[in-house]
Task: inverse folding
């Protein structure tokens, strides 16, 4: 069995809540204030993911993807959709809101595969440019996005649970380039 990426369903809410908690706690110690990480409680995250997954059915531009290892265990996720507000001004027509892979599964092509899934989803929805915001102190993520062609477009402070977090915008002015990433990616169970 190979690594797979598929569109998430409402039944994936518990797995996405756990992944959200784990990946943030792995990624952000020393980068985000400790109270933010301590506030990642599974019941609240579950409710959020359940609502997002149900909302995905009503908002045809929203895409939520889950990456699974060879045993079908969820190890990463990504979300994307139409850009709004300041994102529309700095990132393009689409926005990739989150891309996270468990530390133990990084380096296996899942991050690239999730970016591929998001870019292809947005192209199918008529969005031809897109970007994302990344926490400024997250150097490994910034190197990853730069390595797959992301161009730095903006910096700002993003409100997060009462804190103002410095973030950097990366954009792809032509999503067809991102969607054409090498095909040595995990199997994508597209639609």
Result:
């Amino acid at each position: 069995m190979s690594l797979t990426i598929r569109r998430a369903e409402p039944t994936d809410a518990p797995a996405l809540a756990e992944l959200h908690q784990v990946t943030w706690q792995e990624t952000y110690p020393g980068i985000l204030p400790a109270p933010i990480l301590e506030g990642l409680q599974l019941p609240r995250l579950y409710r959020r993911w359940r609502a997002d997954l149900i909302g995905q059915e009503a908002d045809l531009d929203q895409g939520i993807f889950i990456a699974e290892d060879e045993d079908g265990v969820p190890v990463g996720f990504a979300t994307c959709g139409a850009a709004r507000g300041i994102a529309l001004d700095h990132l393009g027509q689409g926005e990739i809101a989150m891309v996270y892979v468990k530390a133990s599964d990084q380096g296996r092509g899942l991050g690239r595969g999730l970016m591929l899934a998001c870019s292809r989803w947005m192209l199918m929805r008529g969005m031809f440019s897109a970007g994302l915001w990344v926490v400024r102190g997250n150097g490994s993520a910034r190197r990853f996005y730069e390595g797959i062609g992301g161009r730095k477009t903006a910096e700002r402070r993003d409100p997060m649970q009462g804190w103002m977090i410095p973030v950097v915008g990366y954009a792809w002015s032509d999503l067809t380039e991102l969607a054409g990433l090498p095909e040595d990616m995990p199997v994508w169970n597209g639609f």
Observations:
- The chain has a mean pLDDT of 92.
